[in-house]
């Protein structure tokens, strides 16, 4: 037995009984690699912000980040479970860093240049074949629940997830509500985050990534139910617990994103809340790579200590 294939890892793998051994092995790779390997917790470095937000907004705060190698090395040195990026960034380093860290190929991306109004929908920018060629453990895909372009994105996900699973890869879904069906504030409302996690789970995601939920219920119909059943949403741990429960009663790996760069104490307070609520970990992009390398390593060390505790 691999030393990090702990009872907890086996328990998590048992939640995916319909997956083939290749996919289970790749989920296990994500769960057994890095500092948190074996704990059932994950910290992933995602660097698709160059595509999503633009190069200067992403990398000017810490210019070594313009270089793709920088992020591979940061994820490896910090002891992350995995590194996620679009095709170009992975092609630039997957050979040089082969075998050093599990990779997740983001198979769709959006940019901040086009105006998609009520219909945000990322373009498919890579293939399952690319993920296999680059030695990835998983594909990554972003959905925007609430978007008027929902049919297109869910149909693409359905096809890509089926193909990825056929070839023994894991499926990681970024589930970010936005578009015509949700208000700006509502994008992180607790009912909406919980709904986003449920949709990703129903689409067959093995790992689901949502934003930390706020103390707000967006939909009037949902609000009645939250009140009637007194669902606790006051504190971040309450809300995280609810979102995790909404992903198949806690039988899906749900991790939370870091958001815009903020002060170290704010980041750590949020991570403590996620841990306390039973979240499976974090995917921390800008708060990692926009800090100078030494500070980023220190922050990721502190984040992992919280999840280890
Ligand atoms: P951050 O920690 O930088 O927020 O990264 C997490 C992430 O999911 C990235 O993968 C993605 O680029 C970004 O958030 C998208 O954020 P948004 O679309 O809300 O600007």
Summarize the topology.
Blueprint (H helix, E strand, L loop, with lengths): L6 H7 L7 H12 L9 E5 L2 H4 L2 H5 L8 H11 L3 E4 L1 H7 L9 E4 L1 E2 L13 E2 L3 H6 L4 E6 L6 H17 L3 E6 L14 H13 L4 E4 L9 H9 L7 H11 L6 E5 L6 H13 L4 E3 L2 H4 L3 H16 L1
Parallel strand pairs: 1-2, 1-10, 2-3, 3-6, 6-7, 7-8, 8-9, 9-10
Antiparallel strand pairs: 4-5
This protein binds 1,6-di-O-phosphono-beta-D-fructofuranose.
Q: For the largest beta sheet, what order do the strands appear in spatially?
A: 1-2-3-6-7-8-9-10
Average pLDDT across residues? 97
Shape: globular
* Poorly predicted ranges: none
| Coarse structural class | alpha/beta
Helix count from the secondary structure assignment: 14
Q: What about the largest sheet?
A: 8 strands, parallel, barrel
- The share of residues in helices is 40-55%
* Straight-line distance between termini: 24 Å
Portion in beta strands: 5-15%
Task: Give the helices and strands as they follow along the chain.
Answer: HHEHHHEHEEEHEHEHEHHEHEHH
Give the oligomeric state of the chains in this entry, treating copies of one chain as homo and distinct chains as hetero: single chain
Cα Rg: 18 Å
Count the strands? 10
- Which molecules are bound besides the chains? 1,6-di-O-phosphono-beta-D-fructofuranose
Structural commentary:
The strands form 2 sheets. The protein has an 8-stranded parallel beta barrel, surrounded by 7 helices. It has a two-stranded antiparallel sheet with strand order 4-5. By secondary structure, the protein is α/β, with parallel strands linked by helices. The chain is built from 14 helices and 10 strands. Helix content is 44%, strand content 13%. The site of 1,6-di-O-phosphono-beta-D-fructofuranose (FBP) has 14 residues, from helix 3 and helix 13.
């Amino acid at each position: 037995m691999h030393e990090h294939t702990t009872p907890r890892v086996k328990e998590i793998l048992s939640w995916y009984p319909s997956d083939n051994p290749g996919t289970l092995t790749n989920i296990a790779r994500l769960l057994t690699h890095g500092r948190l390997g074996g704990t059932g917790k994950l910290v992933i470095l995602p660097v698709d912000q160059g595509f999503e937000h633009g190069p200067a907004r992403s990398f000017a705060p810490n210019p070594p980040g313009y270089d793709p190698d920088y992020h591979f090395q940061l994820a490896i040195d910090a002891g992350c479970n995995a590194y996620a990026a679009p095709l170009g960034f992975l092609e630039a380093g997957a050979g040089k860093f082969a075998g050093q860290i599990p990779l997740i190929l983001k198979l769709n991306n959006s940019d901040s240049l086009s105006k998609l109004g009520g219909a945000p929908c990322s373009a498919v920018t890579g293939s399952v074949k690319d993920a296999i060629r680059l030695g990835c453990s998983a594909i990554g895909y972003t959905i925007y629940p609430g978007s008027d372009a929902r049919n297109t994105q869910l149909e693409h996900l359905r096809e890509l997830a089926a193909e990825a699973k056929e070839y023994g890869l894991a499926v990681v879904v970024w589930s970010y509500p936005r578009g015509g069906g949700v208000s700006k504030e509502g994008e992180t409302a607790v009912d909406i985050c919980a709904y986003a996690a449920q949709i990703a789970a129903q689409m067959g995601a093995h790992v689901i990534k949502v934003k930390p939920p706020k103390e707000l219920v967006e939909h009037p119909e949902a609000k009645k139910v939250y009140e009637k059943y007194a669902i606790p949403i006051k504190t971040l741990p309450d809300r995280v617990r609810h979102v995790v429960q909404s992903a198949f009663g806690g039988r899906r790996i749900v991790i939370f994103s870091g958001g815009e760069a903020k002060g170290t104490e704010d980041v750590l307070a949020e991570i403590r809340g996620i841990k306390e609520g039973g979240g499976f970990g974090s995917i921390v992009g800008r708060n990692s790579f926009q800090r100078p390398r030494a500070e980023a390593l220190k922050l990721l060390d502190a984040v992992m200590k919280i999840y280890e505790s």
